[in-house]
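Exam revision sheet. Question 4 asks you to relate a sequence to its structure. Input first:
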Amino acid sequence: MSNSKRATYLTLGLGAALAVLGTRTLAQTFAPPSPVEVEPLVELELQALRASTSASPEHDHMPMEVPEGAPIPALSLQVSPDAVSGFNLELQLARYALGPPPTVDSMEALMRPTLSDMGFVEGHAHLYVNGEKISRLYGRHAHVPGSLLGPGLNQLTVTINSHGHQTWSVNGRAILATLFFRGDDLAHRFESFAMNERP
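Answer key, structure tokens:
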């Protein structure tokens, strides 16, 4: 299959996935594909999205709407090869207060939307590599070890999340950024609310 046809399938798959997010929870959105032959790149994308949006026993990754009147955050990703292993990841953020959660007495206190002194929603980020949640991010930079990457196509996805771990969303559309790459070559970039878009 040609690279242009593969890119078209990938773009259509992401577009279809985002179109459904407004009516279903993130965990419900990605049912297994029908038993029709599925292009391997699209199947990898679906597996990664299922994993990055499913609820875990530890936390509920349901969507949380950015409150009305609050600025809509923007998220883009940049990666550069690390001299020793893997990649160095940079989160490019606008209108978002990234940091660790405040000290509170209960998880319930973290389940409400919170705004920074500047009026931006606040929280942390979740990093997924090939569909598996790797860590929380409280800062803009992270290292992705080569041991987490497979041969061939790899996917890095970052979501921004409330302190209660819900994925920040706008009209049901999750705020996330994804990079697909082979080796050091970027194959595809997807950003639901990119830095270069107007809020």
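Marking note for examiners. The two ends are 37 Å apart (CA to CA).
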